[in-house]
Amino acid sequence: MTNGESYGEDDALEVGEGSAGEAEQPAEEELAALADQPPISPEELDRRQELLREVRREGGPDLHAETEAREEAVEDVPDIPPTETEEGGA
Amino acid sequence: MSPINLLQNIGLTDANTGGQTATVGEPTAANNDQEILVAGNWYATKTLDGGTNWALVDPFTFFPKAAGGFCCDQVVVYDPANNLLFWLLQYVRDAQGRNILRLAVKQGGTLGDNAWYWWDFSAETTNAAWAGEWFDYPDLELGDSFLYLTTNSFRGDAFARSVVFRLPLQALRDGGSLSYAYFASTKNFSLRCVRGARDTMYFASHNATNQVRVFSWPEAAQGPSVHDVNVSVWNAGRYSAPGPDGTNWLSRCDPRITGAWLANGSIGLAWSVNSRGPRPFPHVRVVEIDETSMQVTADRDIWSTDYAYAYPSGAANDAGKIGITLFRGGNQLNPGHVVGAYDEAGGSWDLVATKDGTNGPTDNKWGDYLTCRPHTPGGQTWLATGYTLQGGGTRTDIEPRLVQFSA
To answer: What are the structural domains of chain B?
Structure first.
């Protein structure tokens, strides 16, 4: 595969069609009635915070290993001066 | 004096969010004039008066239950051309490891009522061969005739593929049956669509730490074309930028492309990278790629010798000027929120802090995305989200932020 060509020969790439079916479209009152449910508890939210992974799931090329394997040329970065941030805000 | 003018800089309170906040905040916002919908982990809140009064729209209970119940990632987008508001929600995996993404739609100008309709998307209903996979990290972008829904798909914890759904806006407006086309890649992780597309959608992902793969999908074409674009080398690896309290707000950060825009014939891509050479902290790589030649035309990195920058999201306003939202922090600074715009004449970013945090996250969890879009109507200013910790380092100390700014 070269730039700009179709990916038809590449097994990693796929095009397809599908359907999500008919829209769910309840009466407004039906949705309004759901609001009577009790809110989620702070304890459950604390539990969810704990369940958040400390490292995100990743995939595709192993960019971390690629970085570790590259020790040389670490000075080679675009020649752009540091970015200033003005203090402002609330 | 900064050329960035903060027209609105609103810190959302527990009364606005129900206190349903997380340090992995992921705030998103969309507006239609005075109507604004803001969502994040794990709340949604709306205002009908431009931000004076807010009302919680609880994502746990607002819609009927599905899969394992509401989970987390949310994205909201307003389409002024079709006067439609979109709200995308991710649901928890069920006992079989499957989940759904729910795409809810309502007419613009009706945010005061509960009249939403929606479709659910799952891996196995998209392609039977994907049964057992689940969707994560969804996003939405608009083109002339389609809404593009992107997501990663995992089998257990293993990456399976990234998917781009192309959904006809007319069918979304009509609210009946919804047929779509999709594109999937098992090689490229976390495909990110550009903001500001018209009749061709571009989306991108990394091939390597010196090359991005840009896909172009004309709306009249059955599928996208592929373009591999070389960029100057950057570093991945585990990011670290401990703040004054020693917490590392970048422990979850990775190099996926989080900012993508199209303006003036140029595709802009932005992502968080690790320290490298004279740049002592993680920072943001920004490259501009010519839409026709598919060659990099400019590097516009955002970096500092004093702290890290991360999690960029950007968009062009209607004049083609690029606005951006991101975080900064580490070293002497707790994580804080920054917005700004690129000054073409000066060749640099003008950035201004909207709010500095008082703490870092005690459990080192932060991210995963922010939102910056043109404000509607007018499109000359931007609407951006952010958040900080105020008064402590736990999820209950999170203050989500909604900013309208001009440049």
So the answer is: 5-406 (2.130.10.10)
